[in-house]
Every structure is written in structure tokens, then in C-alpha cells.
Design brief:
single chain
Amino acid sequence: MADIKSRLSEYLEKIQKELDKTMQFWLKYSHDDEYGGFFTCLGKDGKVYDDLKYVWLQGRQSRLSVNPCLRIDVSAYCQSIKKRSS
């Protein structure tokens, strides 16, 4: 049983690191500072390869950006969101 808990803890840590990397990528590259909204067609290097902004993806990214702020205390993340929206 202890082995299972240990492995689950390792997986949870790995998932958290990947999620943090993913969120940092999207925070860094997806915002369109000129016209607003989010770019959704990004390469692995963060470069925009298509500037179409699909409406449902705008809503999805908005919700995903706010969701952590509603559930847990992630002050640095929430401050980043607030700076971009003002």
C-alpha cells in the first residue's frame, strides 16, 4: 500500500510540473496584446502559425485561465492574468 501511495505521489508531482510548464507556455505566447483575445494556433516554439481566433477557443482559454484562481491560492498566476486583462 505504501508503494502505491508513493507512486501516486510521484505521478501527481510529474503531472503538476507538466501542467505548470503548459500554463506558462500559454501565458507567455497565446495572448494577443495588440487586438485582445488569444492565439490558439501556436507552434512548439510559441510562434503563431495561424492568426484565426476561434470563438469557442477564446471562451475555453478564458475559463481555463481563471479556473485555478477560483479553486486554489495561486497568487502569482492570478496576478499574471490580472496584469494582462488591464
